[in-house]
Amino acid sequence: MSDKNGQTRRFRIYFYGAVQGVGFRPTIYRLAKSLGVKGSVRNTTEGVIVEIEGDVHAEEFVDHVKSNLPPLAKLTGVEWHELEPVGYVDFIIEKSSHGNEVQALVLPDAAICEDCKRELFDPSDRRYRYPFINCTNCGPRFTIIKALPYDRPNTTMAVFKMCPECEAEYHDPSSRRFHAQPNCCAVCGPRLLLIGPEGEVEGDQIKLTAKAILEGKVVAIKGLGGYHFACDATNDEAVKKLRMRKRRYNKPFALMARMEDIERICRFSECERALLQSTAAPIVLLEPESDGMISQFVAPGQKKLGFMIPYTPLHLLLMEELKRPIVLTSANPTGEPIIFRDEINRLLKFADLVLTHNRDIYIRADDSVDMVFRGARYPLRRSRGYAPLPVRLPIDFRRTLLAVGPMMRTTFTLLIGRNAFLSQHIGDTDTLAGLQAEIEAVNHFINLFQVSKVDVVAIDKHPLYPNRSIADEFPDAEVIEVQHHRAHIAGVMAEHGLTGEVIGVAMDGTGYGDDGAVWGGEFFAGEIHDLKRVGHLRYVFLPGGDSSIRHIWKFALSILYELGEEPSMFEKKFGNDYRMLLGAIKNRFAGVMTSSAGRLFDAASYLLGVCEENTFDGEAPMRLEAAAVPADGRYGFEVHDDGNGYVLDMLPAFREMLQDGEDVSFRAFKFHRTLADGIVEVVRRIEADTGIKRVALSGGVFQNLTLLKMVVSSLERRGFDVLIHREVPPNDGGLSLGMAMLAAMQ
Ligand code: ZN
Ligand code: ZN
Ligand code: FE
To answer: Which ligand is the nearest neighbour of the Cα of 507?
Structure first.
């Protein structure tokens, strides 16, 4: 405790981090009051500035703040200095002011809190069943904020004038809604609207929506970051109808269900439970124990189902009405961004009804997707609930940098100082709509974080990625090309706050290599900013360009050709196509060489009869993993040094796998183990050469937990320090972080 001596001192304290829109100022206010301190608190674009005057030292005050942090607040830094007392007469909350540089964090959207849930279902509460209930501890943030500082006029709630009761809460420091910017109620706030082909539908919108879903209809529902399509997940016909309308035939759908329903369907760990119930409320991939309840068309050929719990009051009301799981999938025509504006006619092309409301979404944000690996979060898509929280880099970049990410399932990163602000999921930018979505989001971030000048733009080395053109919007910026797989590795290091030496293993789908080949099974070593490629998977010819990524028999044929086989089964099945393709393979014509690990999974999946075609990105590898059942033994592989580094040759494994008489599920498993052992063998040789004991694992293929587990355990048993992703996805959704780090270090 401090020694109170009756002396009045004044301190100015700067709080940095997630301190706006989280009830930070009211917490400060209450603390100051309880400690009998005078002074002021105010939001600035840099963070929160507190002045205290009285018989309290800044250090003591800061300790109090730290032990009383509101649920959504996160401190990344605190500084203070002493000033001459000025004779404050009270403690006041000042109006927001503008500063120069934005370090204050824009908060992600947060799932409904327990207090609001209770009020929502309390008939005596004035917000009973009000679908837009929120408070300082929960509700929309990122998706409704137009600019900083985070105050109501800068949000899409600006058009709603608070009623006297809401206004009173907003100004009452003892209220949970003190300065809660989206505060509202049924009297003054947004309203629901149910629209069918004939126009507005009168009645209780929630009950009518539930009824329609139970009748097997598809309903578009406006969520936090965009529209979803919903249908009864236990109804085969409804799920099939949604698949036909969306033209998404196999890709797994996400589910929304109440906790008690998820408990009935899946067994899960405490970590998975905590993730489901976290304020981010992501989709969590879980293994169902009984699949009797959920339609088989929800996730065909997959072992896991993606569940989220109702995270807005609107979803909660609907799910309490339905009391059964629903499909809740982003409302987007396949390959295009999620619909977030009120394009009712467009939505009615897919849905029978649209449940909407008049609170605008300012920026779109898809749901996030997480898995749990070894008792901690392992992200697959970092978006709603996480974006735009920054990853703090181990380097201080004194300028502003934009990394635009790769072409597919991309994000971008805006690096300001040490803070790498990752965007929400942008998706595929190979369409005009997708590219436009990225440009809009980039402009929004630049405006939001008040960036006056982008100094550097980092782009993927692939010469044909359309989003490289975003660099043209910044004619004064220096443009730096970053090699895809080095960026994957740098991303892992960035998350762990590390620079220095590392062995990087990137097992991936597609990325442009230094030599113009399609890379995707790469080994690097050295300082993070100067990674040397010291090994790779053996090159195999990938015939037929992009179409062979979907039509996986083509690469399978190329593998068979390398093994010296010309299988007649292909000839029967593909006739002329087969003969043409075989000619192309023999002459290395119209195709590229590739070291991609993803393609090896495609080929194995095809040759084992597990999957015919990638109808969506990663389908064949996902099905191969789902098919694998633990078995003893593995196949052979070879490692040789070709003068430029190690070459890991998996062709012997294919030969043995095809001759193996065992069940497909065992062969699928042995394929995984062979690759894992091959990877570890190459890493051991690199360690022998370099002495580096730290390994970073990244790339989309490491979404495969069967492979990841084998590689991590095996490396750890051999004394390696193994780093994996925990904050951003190992797939291309996390790439912009590593691109930003590498470009900043150049
Ligand atoms: Zn709340
Ligand atoms: Zn009100
Ligand atoms: Fe990649």
So the answer is: 3
Q: pLDDT tens-digit profile of 53-75? A: 999 999 999 999 999 998 888 88
CA–centroid distance, residue 499 to ligand 3 (Å): 21
Least confident of 144-158, 363-377, 458-472: 144-158
Q: pLDDT tens digits for 482-507?
A: 999 999 999 999 999 999 999 999 99
Ligand 3 centroid – CA 517 distance (Å): 14
Please report which ligand is nearest the Cα atom of 140.
1
Asked, colleague to colleague, whether 106-190 and 192-369 share their fold, the answer is: yes
| Ligand 3 centroid, distance to 731 Cα (angstroms) | 6
b or e along 121-145 (b: 16 or more beta carbons within 10 Å of the residue's beta carbon)?
eeeeeebebbbbbbbbbbbbbbbbb
The CA–CA distances, whole Å, from 580 to 323, 561, 584, 587, 590 equal 55, 14, 6, 11, 11
Predicted pLDDT at 472 = 95
Q: What class does CATH assign to 9-93? A: alpha beta
Between these two residues, 569 and 136, which has the higher pLDDT value?
136
Mention the CATH class of domain 106-190: alpha beta
Helix, strand, coil percentages, rounded to 5, for the chain: 35, 25, 40
* pLDDT for the residue 46: 72
Res 103: pLDDT: 54
Query: How far away, in angstroms, is 29 Cα from ligand 1 center?
Result: 20
**Res 101: pLDDT:** 46
Instruction: Give the ligand at the shortest distance from the Cα of 167.
Output: 2
Band (pLDDT 50/70/90 cuts) for residue 118 is very high
126: CA distance to ligand 2 center in Å? Answer: 9
Ligand 2 midpoint to CA 311 (Å): 22
Domain boundaries, the chain: 9-93, 106-190, 192-369, 388-537+662-746
| Residues 589, 575: Cα–Cα separation, whole Å | 19
Residue 362 has pLDDT above 90, yes or no: yes
459 alpha carbon – ligand 3 mean position (Å): 13
Q: Report CA 297 to chain centroid distance, whole Å.
A: 25
Residue 138 CA to ligand 1 centre (angstroms): 4
Query: 28 alpha carbon to ligand 1 midpoint, in Å?
Result: 19
Is the domain spanning 388-537+662-746 CATH 3.30.420.560? The answer is: yes
Q: Which ligand is nearest to the CA of 698?
A: 3
Contact between residue 465 and residue 407 where contact means Cβ atoms under 8 Å apart: yes
CA of 715 to the centre of ligand 3 (A): 22
Using alpha carbons, select from 711, 721, 713, 644 the residue that is nearest to residue 687: 721
Ligand 1 mean position, distance from CA 66 (Å): 21
- What CATH number has the domain spanning 192-369? 3.90.870.40
pLDDT score at 77 = 83
Distance between Cα 336 and ligand 3 center (Å): 20
* Confidence at residue 43, expressed as pLDDT on a 0 to 100 scale: 82
| Mean pLDDT score, 633-661 | 97
Q: What is the whole-number distance in angstroms between the Cα of residue 386 and the centre of ligand 1?
A: 18
Q: Mark the residues whose beta carbon lies below 5 A from ion ligand 1.
A: 113, 116, 135, 137-138
Residue 410 is given by DSSP the state B
Over residues 238-264, the pLDDT tens digits come to 999 999 999 999 999 999 999 999 999
CA dihedral in degrees (343, 348, 351, 357; nearest 10)? 40
Which residues does 687 contact at the CB level (< 8 Å), separation at least 6? Answer: 503, 693, 720
Task: Please tell me the predicted confidence (pLDDT) of residue 102.
Answer: 52
Which ligand ends up closest to the CA of 730?
Answer: 3
